[in-house]
Amino acid sequence: MGITHLKQLISQKGYEKIKHVVRRDKLVLIFQLFYFLLLFLIPVVLYFLFKNYLPAILAHNIWHPAVLLGISVYYSAVWVFLFAAFLDYYLDTWIITNDRLLNIEQEGVFARTISELDLYRIQDATSEIKGIFPSLFGYGSVYIQTAGEKARFVLEQVPNPHELRKKIMDLAEEDRKFHNKK
Fold first, then answer.
1. Within the chain, what is the greatest distance between any pair of CA atoms?
2. Domain containing 50: what range?
3. b/e for 90-115, b at 16 or more Cβ within 10 A?
4. Which whole-number Å values give the CA distances from 175 to 10, 33, 86, 122, 178, in the listed order?
5. How many CB atoms are located within 10 Å of the residue 8 CB?
6. Rounded CA gap, 171 and 2, in Å?
7. Counted domains in the chain
8. Percent of the chain with pLDDT over 70
9. Average pLDDT for residues 102-117, to the nearest whole number?
10. What is the CATH number of the domain that holds 9?
11. Which residues pair with 124 in a beta bridge?
């Protein structure tokens, strides 16, 4: 999603400027790809096990095509889930402007939810890094508390969550000053 596409998606106000476009950390995608790589290797391992320990099944006129059909269905399912996981990673986006925070969340292949909050309504922001890999690689979550309808916004698995929290709170303070002048 390029910046021009994002501007069309969010109907940007005249005075509004995009300050940050945040996505999940790239390592999250790498870990998911590693998981899917393991799923792709399962049939290969099973093939060598069958070839060495049960060669009659692979030579049988009925079982051999059935095994090939099963492997084909399995690989098709893994590809579909890989595609859905990539879409979820790539299309989950948080846009921070000088006026608001937009949460664009892909839910499955054919559903997307877009929610927004005005920065001046932010009451509190908390950043959290939990776990071994997030601690080692510096990604985590930012929780934003508001008094609005959706009480809590969550930016999950984002890079440098402590720094991002600080930037959001600074922008929220600037926006509060602007709204207090009105």
1. 82
2. 31-87
3. eebbbbbbebbbbbbbbeeeeeeeee
4. 19, 39, 34, 10, 5
5. 9
6. 23
7. 2
8. 92
9. 88
10. 2.30.29
11. 145
Contact 151, 145 (CB under 8 A): yes
Residues 171, 137, single domain; the answer is yes
- Calculate Rg over the CA atoms of the chain: 23
Provide the H-helix boundaries in 54-160.
55-59, 63-91, 132-137
Can you list the alpha helix ranges (DSSP code H) found in 111-160? Answer: 132-137
Amino acid at 41: L
Cα 175 from Cα 43, distance rounded (Å)? 55
CA–CA separation, 95 and 158 (whole Å): 12
Which residue, of 50, 68, 87, is where some domain finishes? 87
Considering only residues 181 and 182, tell me which one the structure prediction assigns the higher pLDDT: 181
- What are 133's two structure tokens? 């890999």
Single pTM value for the model: 0.79
Q: Are residues 80 and 61 in the same domain?
A: yes
